[in-house]
User: Fold this.
Amino acid sequence: MSTLESTNGLEQIVAADGFRAQPKGFATKAIHVGQDPEQWTSMAVVPPITMSATFKQRGPAQHSGYEYGRTENPSRNVLEKCLACLDNGKYGLAFASGHGVATAIITLLKAGDHIVASDNLYGGTNRLLRNFCVDMNIAVDFVNGTDLEKVKAALKPSTKLVWMESPTNPLMKVIDIEAVCAEVHRVAGILVVVDNTFLTSYFQRPLDLGADIVMYSLTKYMNGHSDVVMGAAIMNDEALYKKLKFRQNETGIVPSPFDCYLVNRGLKTLSLRMERHKLNSLAIAKFLEGHPKVKRVLHPGLPSHPQHELAKRQSNGHSGIMSFYLNGDGLEESTLFLKSLKVFTLAVSLGGFESLAELPALMSHSSESVEHRSALGITDGLIRLSVGLEDVDDLIADLEQSLNKL
Ligand code: P1T
Assistant:
């Protein structure tokens, strides 16, 4: 069931859960774009995996468009076209990991430039910005992205990049992407990068909200099967695409053709998987919110979430990622809880078919300083879940038996 609502004069379809309704055609695009069987002589319905590292030339510098596997690869091109289309973007580029994308984007900057980054990012991204950028003489300021005034105040004449995730890892803060982009773009020459890993193009399309680059750790939902490490960047601007494509080849941060095939296969079920992740995670969030051993649940689909209304306006739903604070904030309690889980696996990463649980303070965000973590609220009692596709009753029973141990 859906209704029409008007926000800022723009009509949007609202789904029964209050989020924007999914635009039509997503699943069809995920299954077909970039992979018309007429493109290859075999007419194979499944895009062939081209492992060849090099390609025959008819004469010197007379190649078919494919010259060398690092520069171009047919399996990678299939995936890149499909990824671009799913984000309503013109151009897609695949990289060897999510961090590979981030590194390639940073190489667009030069010494003396400045980055404004959200204070809550994946621990590894935070580390890359704090160490690598600073070593390259690129300054970085971290600000609370939910506070537009703070973002505005952090911009300098040397600012070239604004970097954010929404929702953030692991605190699930929702940033108003449209408002940040509008503010930042008042100044010419600053790129806004949105890491859309947590929601995927199925639930949120940052380019439509004004971002210049949307980036992914494809390792997560987009592949969805926890068997590939890969990343991607999607954009509309041709000049930017050409620069980043040049860097993709120049730095050599490219994925293997086989991995491209796997991610392309994963995309075929993205819409189905995300719908199930959404249902399972919301049921679990509601269960945890009513549990006496739980202090607070962070899930943008809950009315108690501080940016619940924004999340509904900005995205089409929420994935399987959520965090919660146990009543006791001690390591002993969180360790006992995590070690008692039987269906959830204690591991970093997220977005696969299987349910995972982890302790950000000691795992995904352990590279951040204690001061930074405690200022943000990444305490020893904060648990992050990646709710998978198992039967939700089994997942709830698992959480319950583990909470009962405390
Ligand atoms: O692992 P890699 O494919 O390089 O992606 C890094 C990355 C980028 N952006 C976000 C939002 C991420 O969550 C990650 C990786 N995150 C984990 C491994 C984790 O456990 O949070």
